[in-house]
Amino acid sequence: MSGAKFELDGEGVKMVTTDGHRLAFAAVRDGLAIDADAELDVLIPRKTLAELTKLSSDFEGDISLGADENHVYFQIGSRLLISRMLSGQFPNYEMVIPKNNDRSATFDTGALSQAVRRVALMADDRSHAIRFHLSKEQLLITAQNSDEGEARETIETDYAGDDTDIGFNAQYLQDFLNVVGSEKTTFEFKDGNSQAQLRPVSDDAGDYKYIVMPMRL
Q1: Rounded to an integer, what distance in angstroms lies between the CA atom of residue 209 and that of residue 178?
Q2: What are the domain boundaries of the chain?
Q3: For domain 98-212, which architecture applies?
Q4: Counting Cβ atoms within 10 Å, is residue 180 exposed (0-12), middle (13-18) or buried (19+)?
Q5: What global pTM score does this model have?
Q6: What is the rounded radius of gyration, in angstroms, for the C-alpha atoms of the chain?
């Protein structure tokens, strides 16, 4: 989908995006003023979200939201952003969010981000494939390029399960690590062939999940 699913009801706000290889889910409940009978379930275009990000980047006040049958409205201070809604059926994202990822590892977000960035320099230019090898209390990240060589990085973790290998697109991981905004990141998975979930370790009242499909290496 070239946009985001936006849901609003009396319990809060949810936003979901996906490109078929990964999915981002964010929910916020605190700090909102919502009419008791207000409900909204719309698809907002990607360009609208990009423009909204620009307009709100240095704005510290409240942002108001409204909608009619075909449009959604954002009031940011003295500026009003009006956008047409997308039509179509958004995928059933609840089916994609893993329910049985019983293994987990926690990382220092900065260390993981820097390691992925460095190893990705040796990844294939088209697939951006890197390998995670999780073993007791450490993660080994590797990438190999037949023309240029190999890169290896090891970082500490609290993982205590069986050795596991998982392949990922490095750019997909880096996109999450660039915006997660927490000192620690939790990586949850079932095995090397099922979707993995990353989420921030934070006291924030919001709920942020990032699901990414593994690659065959």
Answers
A1: 14
A2: 3-95, 98-212
A3: Roll (3.10)
A4: buried
A5: 0.89
A6: 19
Closest CA to 27 of 215, 204, 214: 204
Pairing of strands 149-156, 164-169: unpaired
Angle at 191 (CA atoms; ends 165, 182), nearest 5 degrees: 80
Q: Categorize the per-residue pLDDT at 32 as very low, low, confident or very high, splitting at 50, 70 and 90.
A: confident
List pLDDT tens digits, range 35-63: 767 788 999 999 999 999 999 999 999 99
Q: Do domains 3-95 and 98-212 have the same CATH topology?
A: yes
CB 170 within 8 A of CB 158: no
Encoding tokens for residue 5? Answer: 């699913």
* Closest among 39, 50, 63, 67 to 3, alpha carbons compared: 50
Q: List beta partners, residue 196.
A: 212
- CA angle, 164 as apex, 158 and 169 as ends, to 5°? 95
What are 199's strand-pairing partners?
186
Q: Selecting from 3.10.150.10, 3.40.50.720, 3.40.50.300, 3.40.1000.10, what CATH number does the domain 3-95 have?
A: 3.10.150.10
CB atoms inside a 10 Å sphere around CB 104: 16
Q: What φ, ψ does residue 112 adopt, rounded to 5°?
A: -65, -45
